[in-house]
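Project outcomes to date are best conveyed with an example. Our students and postdoctoral researchers have been running inverse folding experiments weekly, and each run begins with a structure described purely in tokens. The record below, which covers 244 residues, was selected by the lab manager from last quarter's runs and is presented without edits.
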């Protein structure tokens, strides 16, 4: 994956909201701007180094064409994502492998290679082929896999994913495994499963964002992920991006 790329993205052509539209989780403002230039064009699976987990890896790195200010921003995001990801251990969440530097000196986050395609890719392919909605048993399998991953994040890790959508779900083969990815904008939850820190802000992606994230003073909780989870399943029925 490359951050700051203008190549074709795995996700639909819908940017995350920028800092002017990001909703404070509890009355605060986002600590850094959220631009729409964080492109994720492709997976680059590679063999794992000797002595480390031997499954293929996916590597997210900063695009060499980024400006210095963008590079600093993306480096900070990569470090934050790595710090979150290294504490997660669940079969339905993409696993952490390493935070390192490429030969050109750019920071790289190496992760478990969760699958060949995103759920969004599969939805687009099905729509283009005129196949209609996914079979009920496939939707149920995706629903259970995502629900287990979200339950782990919310109840065991006290984390809000913050950007649940079909591009952030990776699928291996014919739905052999389904994993949630991209925890780079996750937020801590308190004992009431609410984002109570006023300095934090829900980012999300607008078509999947819950009403409370779009309204002034909205209280962000685990329900934000649940709302986006429901819309992701709706995508598998309608084969379209929600609210567009």
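After processing, the design step wrote out the following sequence:
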């Amino acid at each position: 994956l490359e951050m700051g790329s203008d190549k074709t993205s795995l996700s639909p052509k819908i940017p995350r909201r920028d800092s002017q539209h990001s909703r404070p989780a509890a009355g605060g403002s986002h600590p850094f701007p959220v631009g729409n230039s964080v492109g994720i064009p492709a997976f680059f699976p590679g063999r794992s180094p000797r002595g480390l987990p031997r499954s293929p890896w996916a590597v997210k790195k900063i695009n060499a064409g980024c400006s210095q200010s963008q590079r600093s921003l993306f480096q900070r995001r990569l470090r934050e994502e790595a710090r979150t990801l290294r504490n997660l251990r669940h079969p339905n969440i993409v696993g952490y492998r390493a935070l390192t530097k490429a030969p050109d000196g750019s920071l790289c986050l190496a992760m478990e290679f969760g699958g060949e395609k995103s759920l969004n890719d599969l939805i687009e392919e099905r729509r283009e082929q005129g196949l209609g909605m996914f079979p009920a048993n496939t939707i149920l399998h995706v629903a259970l896999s995502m629900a287990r991953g979200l339950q782990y994040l919310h109840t065991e890790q006290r984390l809000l994913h913050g950007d649940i959508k079909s591009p952030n779900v990776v699928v291996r083969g014919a739905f052999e495994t389904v994993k949630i990815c991209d925890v780079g904008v996750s937020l801590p939850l308190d004992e009431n499963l609410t984002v109570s820190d006023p300095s934090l802000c829900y980012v999300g992606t607008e078509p999947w964002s819950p009403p409370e994230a779009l309204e002034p003073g909205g209280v962000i909780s685990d329900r934000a992920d649940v709302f986006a989870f429901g819309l992701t399943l709706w995508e598998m029925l309608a084969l379209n991006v929600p609210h567009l």
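The chain has five helices and eleven strands. The chain has two domains: 56-112, 117-238. The training component of this project remains on track.
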